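Quick one, C-alpha coordinates below. Sequence please?
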Protein backbone atom coordinates (compact mmCIF):
# COMPACT_ATOMS: atom_id res chain seq x y z
CA UNK A 1 0.00 0.00 0.00
CA UNK A 2 0.92 3.66 -0.29
CA UNK A 3 3.14 4.63 2.64
CA UNK A 4 1.38 7.18 4.85
CA UNK A 5 3.59 8.61 7.65
CA UNK A 6 2.77 6.94 10.97
CA UNK A 7 2.75 10.27 12.79
CA UNK A 8 -0.06 11.43 10.51
CA UNK A 9 -2.15 8.38 11.40
CA UNK A 10 -1.58 9.02 15.11
CA UNK A 11 -2.80 12.61 14.77
CA UNK A 12 -5.75 11.59 12.58
CA UNK A 13 -7.00 8.48 14.43
CA UNK A 14 -9.10 7.56 11.44
CA UNK A 15 -11.54 10.47 11.34
CA UNK A 16 -9.74 13.70 10.38
CA UNK A 17 -8.61 12.38 6.95
CA UNK A 18 -5.28 14.23 7.16
CA UNK A 19 -3.80 11.98 4.46
CA UNK A 20 -6.24 13.40 1.92
CA UNK A 21 -8.03 10.10 1.27
CA UNK A 22 -11.85 10.04 1.27
CA UNK A 23 -11.90 7.49 4.10
CA UNK A 24 -9.38 5.81 6.37
CA UNK A 25 -8.04 2.64 4.68
CA UNK A 26 -7.01 1.19 8.04
CA UNK A 27 -10.49 1.56 9.52
CA UNK A 28 -12.18 0.40 6.30
CA UNK A 29 -10.14 -2.80 6.25
CA UNK A 30 -10.69 -3.38 9.95
CA UNK A 31 -14.47 -3.07 9.57
CA UNK A 32 -14.59 -5.37 6.52
CA UNK A 33 -12.35 -8.04 8.03
CA UNK A 34 -14.29 -7.94 11.30
CA UNK A 35 -17.54 -8.34 9.36
CA UNK A 36 -16.22 -11.39 7.49
CA UNK A 37 -14.98 -13.11 10.64
CA UNK A 38 -18.18 -12.33 12.56
CA UNK A 39 -20.19 -14.29 9.98
CA UNK A 40 -18.40 -17.53 10.84
CA UNK A 41 -20.56 -18.81 13.66
CA UNK A 42 -18.86 -22.21 13.64
CA UNK A 43 -15.12 -21.59 13.42
CA UNK A 44 -14.60 -25.05 11.91
CA UNK A 45 -16.79 -24.50 8.84
CA UNK A 46 -16.79 -21.62 6.38
CA UNK A 47 -19.96 -21.59 4.27
CA UNK A 48 -20.95 -19.46 1.29
CA UNK A 49 -20.64 -19.25 -2.49
CA UNK A 50 -17.34 -18.76 -4.24
CA UNK A 51 -17.87 -15.97 -6.89
CA UNK A 52 -15.89 -18.10 -8.21
CA UNK A 53 -12.46 -17.10 -6.88
CA UNK A 54 -9.47 -19.45 -6.74
CA UNK A 55 -5.76 -18.66 -6.60
CA UNK A 56 -2.87 -21.08 -7.08
CA UNK A 57 0.20 -19.84 -5.22
CA UNK A 58 3.80 -20.22 -6.36
CA UNK A 59 5.56 -20.47 -3.00
CA UNK A 60 6.95 -23.97 -2.36
CA UNK A 61 6.65 -24.95 -6.05
CA UNK A 62 6.15 -27.78 -7.11
CA UNK A 63 4.12 -28.27 -3.91
CA UNK A 64 1.81 -25.24 -3.88
CA UNK A 65 -1.14 -23.82 -1.99
CA UNK A 66 -4.66 -23.40 -3.32
CA UNK A 67 -6.70 -20.49 -1.99
CA UNK A 68 -10.45 -20.96 -2.29
CA UNK A 69 -12.18 -17.66 -1.55
CA UNK A 70 -15.64 -17.58 0.06
CA UNK A 71 -17.63 -14.64 1.44
CA UNK A 72 -19.14 -16.26 4.57
CA UNK A 73 -22.93 -16.33 4.59
CA UNK A 74 -23.22 -14.94 1.04
CA UNK A 75 -24.85 -17.38 -1.37
CA UNK A 76 -26.12 -17.41 -4.93
CA UNK A 77 -25.81 -14.63 -7.50
CA UNK A 78 -25.00 -11.96 -4.91
CA UNK A 79 -21.58 -13.61 -4.42
CA UNK A 80 -20.57 -12.66 -7.98
CA UNK A 81 -19.88 -9.07 -6.94
CA UNK A 82 -16.92 -10.17 -4.82
CA UNK A 83 -14.81 -10.98 -7.90
CA UNK A 84 -16.04 -9.27 -11.04
CA UNK A 85 -13.34 -7.18 -12.78
CA UNK A 86 -15.43 -6.31 -15.82
CA UNK A 87 -18.44 -5.46 -13.67
CA UNK A 88 -16.37 -3.39 -11.25
CA UNK A 89 -14.79 -1.15 -13.87
CA UNK A 90 -16.03 2.42 -13.61
CA UNK A 91 -18.56 1.51 -10.92
CA UNK A 92 -16.59 0.44 -7.87
CA UNK A 93 -14.21 2.75 -6.05
CA UNK A 94 -10.89 1.52 -4.69
CA UNK A 95 -12.37 1.50 -1.18
CA UNK A 96 -15.37 -0.54 -2.35
CA UNK A 97 -13.17 -3.13 -4.06
CA UNK A 98 -10.98 -3.45 -0.96
CA UNK A 99 -14.07 -3.77 1.21
CA UNK A 100 -15.46 -6.59 -0.93
CA UNK A 101 -12.16 -8.44 -0.92
CA UNK A 102 -11.79 -7.98 2.84
CA UNK A 103 -15.06 -9.81 3.38
CA UNK A 104 -13.90 -13.04 1.73
CA UNK A 105 -12.11 -15.77 3.65
CA UNK A 106 -9.24 -17.48 1.83
CA UNK A 107 -9.47 -21.18 2.65
CA UNK A 108 -5.97 -22.55 2.07
CA UNK A 109 -5.22 -26.11 1.02
CA UNK A 110 -1.46 -26.63 1.33
CA UNK A 111 1.12 -28.83 -0.39
CA UNK A 112 -0.86 -29.65 -3.51
CA UNK A 113 1.18 -31.47 -6.15
CA UNK A 114 1.12 -29.43 -9.36
CA UNK A 115 1.44 -32.62 -11.43
CA UNK A 116 -1.89 -33.97 -10.17
CA UNK A 117 -4.62 -31.48 -11.21
CA UNK A 118 -7.07 -34.39 -11.46
CA UNK A 119 -7.42 -34.50 -7.67
CA UNK A 120 -9.06 -31.06 -7.81
CA UNK A 121 -11.11 -32.02 -10.86
CA UNK A 122 -12.52 -35.12 -9.13
CA UNK A 123 -13.63 -33.01 -6.16
CA UNK A 124 -15.10 -30.44 -8.62
CA UNK A 125 -12.97 -27.72 -7.05
CA UNK A 126 -11.37 -26.81 -10.37
CA UNK A 127 -14.77 -26.88 -12.09
CA UNK A 128 -16.14 -24.50 -9.48
CA UNK A 129 -13.27 -22.15 -10.34
CA UNK A 130 -14.42 -21.81 -13.96
CA UNK A 131 -18.17 -21.81 -13.36
CA UNK A 132 -20.02 -18.85 -14.88
CA UNK A 133 -22.24 -18.74 -11.80
CA UNK A 134 -21.30 -18.65 -8.10
CA UNK A 135 -20.99 -22.09 -6.53
CA UNK A 136 -22.19 -22.97 -3.01
CA UNK A 137 -19.22 -24.35 -1.08
CA UNK A 138 -17.85 -24.93 2.39
CA UNK A 139 -14.40 -25.33 3.82
CA UNK A 140 -13.58 -27.35 6.92
CA UNK A 141 -10.78 -26.40 9.29
CA UNK A 142 -9.54 -27.49 12.70
CA UNK A 143 -7.66 -24.19 13.05
CA UNK A 144 -9.15 -21.84 15.62
CA UNK A 145 -7.52 -18.62 14.45
CA UNK A 146 -8.18 -16.85 11.19
CA UNK A 147 -5.32 -14.62 10.09
CA UNK A 148 -7.03 -11.19 9.85
CA UNK A 149 -4.92 -9.64 7.08
CA UNK A 150 -5.70 -8.20 3.67
CA UNK A 151 -2.95 -9.21 1.25
CA UNK A 152 -2.03 -7.16 -1.80
CA UNK A 153 -0.29 -7.95 -5.06
CA UNK A 154 0.46 -5.94 -8.18
CA UNK A 155 -0.64 -8.79 -10.46
CA UNK A 156 -3.81 -10.31 -9.05
CA UNK A 157 -6.76 -9.14 -6.98
CA UNK A 158 -6.23 -8.69 -3.20
CA UNK A 159 -7.37 -11.45 -0.88
CA UNK A 160 -8.82 -11.20 2.58
CA UNK A 161 -8.39 -13.04 5.90
CA UNK A 162 -7.07 -16.58 5.55
CA UNK A 163 -7.15 -19.90 7.35
CA UNK A 164 -5.61 -23.27 6.59
CA UNK A 165 -8.30 -25.90 5.92
CA UNK A 166 -8.45 -29.68 5.77
CA UNK A 167 -11.05 -29.95 3.04
CA UNK A 168 -13.10 -27.94 0.56
CA UNK A 169 -16.50 -29.23 -0.49
CA UNK A 170 -18.43 -28.08 -3.53
CA UNK A 171 -22.12 -28.20 -2.61
CA UNK A 172 -23.83 -27.66 -5.98
CA UNK A 173 -23.12 -28.17 -9.66
CA UNK A 174 -20.68 -25.76 -11.33
CA UNK A 175 -22.06 -24.26 -14.55
CA UNK A 176 -19.66 -24.40 -17.51
CA UNK A 177 -20.17 -23.25 -21.07
CA UNK A 178 -20.33 -26.10 -23.64
CA UNK A 179 -17.11 -24.83 -25.26
CA UNK A 180 -15.27 -24.92 -21.93
CA UNK A 181 -16.47 -28.44 -21.16
CA UNK A 182 -15.42 -29.64 -24.60
CA UNK A 183 -11.88 -28.34 -24.26
CA UNK A 184 -11.45 -29.85 -20.81
CA UNK A 185 -12.03 -33.26 -22.41
CA UNK A 186 -10.09 -32.54 -25.62
CA UNK A 187 -6.46 -33.64 -25.82
CA UNK A 188 -5.05 -30.44 -27.36
CA UNK A 189 -2.20 -28.12 -26.47
CA UNK A 190 -2.97 -25.51 -23.84
CA UNK A 191 -2.24 -22.59 -26.20
CA UNK A 192 -4.73 -23.98 -28.75
CA UNK A 193 -7.39 -24.31 -26.06
CA UNK A 194 -6.76 -20.74 -24.84
CA UNK A 195 -7.09 -19.31 -28.35
CA UNK A 196 -10.21 -21.33 -29.16
CA UNK A 197 -11.96 -20.16 -25.99
CA UNK A 198 -10.89 -16.56 -26.61
CA UNK A 199 -12.10 -16.55 -30.23
CA UNK A 200 -15.43 -18.00 -29.08
CA UNK A 201 -15.99 -15.15 -26.62
CA UNK A 202 -15.27 -16.97 -23.35
CA UNK A 203 -14.70 -14.71 -20.35
CA UNK A 204 -11.03 -13.71 -20.31
CA UNK A 205 -10.59 -14.14 -16.57
CA UNK A 206 -12.19 -17.59 -16.65
CA UNK A 207 -9.61 -18.66 -19.25
CA UNK A 208 -6.83 -17.54 -16.91
CA UNK A 209 -8.32 -19.58 -14.05
CA UNK A 210 -8.77 -22.62 -16.31
CA UNK A 211 -5.10 -22.58 -17.24
CA UNK A 212 -4.09 -22.08 -13.61
CA UNK A 213 -6.17 -25.08 -12.50
CA UNK A 214 -4.66 -27.43 -15.10
CA UNK A 215 -7.82 -27.86 -17.18
CA UNK A 216 -6.11 -27.35 -20.58
CA UNK A 217 -3.36 -29.05 -22.49
CA UNK A 218 -2.33 -32.53 -23.56
CA UNK A 219 -3.74 -34.75 -20.85
CA UNK A 220 -0.44 -36.41 -20.01
CA UNK A 221 1.19 -32.98 -19.52
CA UNK A 222 -1.47 -31.13 -17.55
CA UNK A 223 -0.43 -29.43 -14.33
CA UNK A 224 -1.42 -26.60 -12.04
CA UNK A 225 0.03 -23.20 -12.95
CA UNK A 226 0.50 -20.51 -10.29
CA UNK A 227 -2.06 -17.78 -10.94
CA UNK A 228 0.60 -15.08 -11.27
CA UNK A 229 2.19 -17.03 -14.12
CA UNK A 230 -1.09 -17.95 -15.81
CA UNK A 231 -2.20 -14.29 -16.07
CA UNK A 232 0.91 -13.35 -18.04
CA UNK A 233 0.85 -16.63 -20.01
CA UNK A 234 -2.68 -15.96 -21.29
CA UNK A 235 -1.82 -12.34 -22.15
CA UNK A 236 1.23 -13.60 -24.06
CA UNK A 237 -0.54 -16.43 -25.88
CA UNK A 238 -3.42 -14.30 -27.09
CA UNK A 239 -1.15 -11.32 -27.76
CA UNK A 240 1.12 -13.51 -29.90
CA UNK A 241 -1.84 -14.60 -32.03
CA UNK A 242 -3.23 -11.08 -32.39
CA UNK A 243 0.16 -9.63 -33.32
CA UNK A 244 0.69 -12.27 -36.02
CA UNK A 245 -2.54 -11.06 -37.64
CA UNK A 246 -2.07 -7.33 -37.04
CA UNK A 247 1.33 -7.32 -38.77
CA UNK A 248 -0.39 -8.34 -42.02
CA UNK A 249 -2.79 -5.36 -42.05
CA UNK A 250 -2.28 -1.92 -43.64
CA UNK A 251 -1.16 0.96 -41.45
CA UNK A 252 -3.56 3.54 -40.01
CA UNK A 253 -3.69 6.87 -41.84
CA UNK A 254 -3.33 9.45 -39.07
CA UNK A 255 -2.05 9.89 -35.54
CA UNK A 256 -4.75 9.17 -32.94
CA UNK A 257 -4.79 9.86 -29.20
CA UNK A 258 -7.06 8.01 -26.74
CA UNK A 259 -7.66 8.44 -23.04
CA UNK A 260 -9.33 6.82 -20.04
CA UNK A 261 -8.82 6.69 -16.28
CA UNK A 262 -9.84 4.59 -13.30
CA UNK A 263 -8.68 4.13 -9.68
CA UNK A 264 -6.21 6.99 -9.85
CA UNK A 265 -4.55 5.55 -12.98
CA UNK A 266 -4.58 7.77 -16.09
CA UNK A 267 -3.94 6.24 -19.50
CA UNK A 268 -3.09 7.94 -22.81
CA UNK A 269 -2.63 5.80 -25.92
CA UNK A 270 -1.09 7.22 -29.09
CA UNK A 271 -1.46 5.24 -32.33
CA UNK A 272 0.59 6.46 -35.29
CA UNK A 273 1.11 5.31 -38.92
CA UNK A 274 3.89 2.74 -38.81
CA UNK A 275 4.69 -0.93 -38.85
CA UNK A 276 3.92 -2.32 -35.41
CA UNK A 277 6.21 -1.18 -32.61
CA UNK A 278 5.35 -0.18 -29.09
CA UNK A 279 6.53 1.99 -26.19
CA UNK A 280 5.28 1.70 -22.59
CA UNK A 281 5.84 4.52 -20.11
CA UNK A 282 4.83 4.53 -16.43
CA UNK A 283 4.90 7.72 -14.36
CA UNK A 284 4.69 7.05 -10.61
CA UNK A 285 3.75 10.05 -8.49
CA UNK A 286 5.07 10.67 -4.96
CA UNK A 287 3.08 8.74 -2.35
CA UNK A 288 1.63 6.45 -4.99
CA UNK A 289 2.19 2.76 -4.36
CA UNK A 290 5.91 2.11 -4.37
CA UNK A 291 7.59 5.49 -4.17
CA UNK A 292 7.96 8.80 -2.32
CA UNK A 293 9.31 10.61 -5.38
CA UNK A 294 8.37 10.99 -9.03
CA UNK A 295 9.63 7.94 -10.93
CA UNK A 296 9.47 7.25 -14.68
CA UNK A 297 10.02 3.77 -16.11
CA UNK A 298 9.75 2.64 -19.72
CA UNK A 299 10.24 -0.23 -22.12
CA UNK A 300 9.96 -0.77 -25.87
CA UNK A 301 8.92 -3.60 -28.18
CA UNK A 302 9.92 -4.02 -31.82
CA UNK A 303 8.09 -5.32 -34.89
CA UNK A 304 9.02 -8.93 -34.11
CA UNK A 305 7.48 -8.84 -30.65
CA UNK A 306 10.78 -8.58 -28.78
CA UNK A 307 10.61 -6.33 -25.72
CA UNK A 308 13.19 -5.01 -23.26
CA UNK A 309 11.86 -7.04 -20.32
CA UNK A 310 8.65 -8.76 -19.25
CA UNK A 311 6.25 -6.46 -17.42
CA UNK A 312 2.81 -7.76 -16.41
CA UNK A 313 1.20 -4.32 -16.61
CA UNK A 314 2.52 -3.75 -20.11
CA UNK A 315 1.35 -7.19 -21.28
CA UNK A 316 -2.16 -6.43 -20.03
CA UNK A 317 -2.31 -3.03 -21.73
CA UNK A 318 -0.63 -4.33 -24.90
CA UNK A 319 -3.32 -7.02 -25.22
CA UNK A 320 -6.07 -4.36 -25.23
CA UNK A 321 -4.29 -2.38 -27.97
CA UNK A 322 -3.73 -5.47 -30.13
CA UNK A 323 -7.40 -6.41 -29.72
CA UNK A 324 -8.46 -3.03 -31.08
CA UNK A 325 -6.02 -3.11 -34.02
CA UNK A 326 -7.16 -6.65 -34.84
CA UNK A 327 -10.78 -5.52 -34.75
CA UNK A 328 -9.98 -2.58 -37.07
CA UNK A 329 -7.78 -4.74 -39.33
CA UNK A 330 -5.02 -2.15 -39.11
CA UNK A 331 -1.52 -1.97 -37.70
CA UNK A 332 0.17 0.98 -36.06
CA UNK A 333 2.98 2.18 -33.89
CA UNK A 334 1.90 2.46 -30.26
CA UNK A 335 2.81 4.65 -27.30
CA UNK A 336 1.05 3.87 -24.01
CA UNK A 337 1.50 6.26 -21.11
CA UNK A 338 0.22 5.20 -17.69
CA UNK A 339 0.26 7.80 -14.93
CA UNK A 340 -0.19 6.47 -11.38
CA UNK A 341 -1.20 9.04 -8.78
CA UNK A 342 -1.50 8.98 -5.00
CA UNK A 343 -5.21 8.15 -5.45
CA UNK A 344 -4.04 4.59 -6.18
CA UNK A 345 -2.98 3.82 -2.62
CA UNK A 346 -3.40 0.01 -2.73
CA UNK A 347 -2.77 -2.44 -5.61
CA UNK A 348 -5.74 -4.41 -6.89
CA UNK A 349 -4.05 -6.45 -9.63
CA UNK A 350 -3.39 -5.69 -13.28
CA UNK A 351 -6.95 -6.37 -14.50
CA UNK A 352 -7.74 -2.65 -14.25
CA UNK A 353 -4.83 -1.86 -16.61
CA UNK A 354 -6.26 -4.19 -19.26
CA UNK A 355 -9.82 -2.92 -18.78
CA UNK A 356 -8.95 0.79 -18.69
CA UNK A 357 -6.92 0.52 -21.89
CA UNK A 358 -9.84 -1.29 -23.51
CA UNK A 359 -12.23 1.50 -22.49
CA UNK A 360 -9.86 4.18 -23.78
CA UNK A 361 -9.76 2.60 -27.24
CA UNK A 362 -13.48 1.88 -27.32
CA UNK A 363 -14.85 5.22 -26.22
CA UNK A 364 -12.48 8.11 -25.78
CA UNK A 365 -10.49 9.29 -28.80
CA UNK A 366 -9.51 12.81 -27.77
CA UNK A 367 -7.55 14.02 -30.77
CA UNK A 368 -6.01 13.38 -34.18
CA UNK A 369 -2.71 14.80 -35.37
CA UNK A 370 -0.50 14.88 -38.44
CA UNK A 371 2.67 15.29 -36.41
CA UNK A 372 3.87 12.78 -33.81
CA UNK A 373 5.81 15.32 -31.77
CA UNK A 374 2.69 17.46 -31.50
CA UNK A 375 0.67 14.46 -30.32
CA UNK A 376 3.28 13.72 -27.65
CA UNK A 377 3.33 17.37 -26.54
CA UNK A 378 -0.47 17.32 -26.36
CA UNK A 379 -0.39 14.30 -24.04
CA UNK A 380 2.40 15.90 -21.99
CA UNK A 381 0.18 18.95 -21.41
CA UNK A 382 -2.56 16.71 -19.98
CA UNK A 383 -0.37 14.87 -17.47
CA UNK A 384 -0.75 15.44 -13.74
CA UNK A 385 3.05 15.66 -13.75
CA UNK A 386 3.05 18.08 -16.70
CA UNK A 387 5.64 20.45 -15.25
CA UNK A 388 7.93 17.71 -13.96
CA UNK A 389 8.46 15.59 -17.04
CA UNK A 390 9.16 15.89 -20.77
CA UNK A 391 7.89 12.81 -22.57
CA UNK A 392 10.16 13.53 -25.55
CA UNK A 393 13.15 12.97 -23.26
CA UNK A 394 11.99 9.57 -21.96
CA UNK A 395 14.50 7.02 -23.28
CA UNK A 396 12.12 4.82 -25.33
CA UNK A 397 10.16 7.76 -26.77
CA UNK A 398 13.35 9.65 -27.65
CA UNK A 399 14.68 6.56 -29.40
CA UNK A 400 11.40 6.14 -31.26
CA UNK A 401 11.40 9.76 -32.42
CA UNK A 402 14.93 9.55 -33.78
CA UNK A 403 14.21 6.28 -35.61
CA UNK A 404 10.76 7.06 -37.01
CA UNK A 405 10.52 8.20 -40.62
CA UNK A 406 10.58 11.95 -41.12
CA UNK A 407 7.14 12.19 -42.74
CA UNK A 408 5.52 11.69 -39.32
CA UNK A 409 6.86 15.04 -38.16
CA UNK A 410 5.64 16.95 -41.20
CA UNK A 411 2.11 18.21 -41.60
CA UNK A 412 0.34 16.35 -44.37
CA UNK A 413 -1.55 18.86 -46.49
Amino acid sequence: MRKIPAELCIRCKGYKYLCGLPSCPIMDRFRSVTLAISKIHNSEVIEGSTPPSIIIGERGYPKVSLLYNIPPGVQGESAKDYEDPRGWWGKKSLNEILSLRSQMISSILKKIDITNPYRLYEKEISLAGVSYKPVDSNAVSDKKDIEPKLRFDGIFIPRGPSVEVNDIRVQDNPKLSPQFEKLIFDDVKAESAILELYRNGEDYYRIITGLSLGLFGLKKNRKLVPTRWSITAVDQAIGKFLLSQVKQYPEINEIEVYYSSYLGNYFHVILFPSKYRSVWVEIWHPLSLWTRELIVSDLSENFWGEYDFLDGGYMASRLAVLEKLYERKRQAGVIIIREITSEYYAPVGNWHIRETTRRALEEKKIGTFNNLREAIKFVNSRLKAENQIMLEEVRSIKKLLTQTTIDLFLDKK
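The mean pLDDT is 87. Residues 10 and 231 are 39 Å apart (CA to CA).
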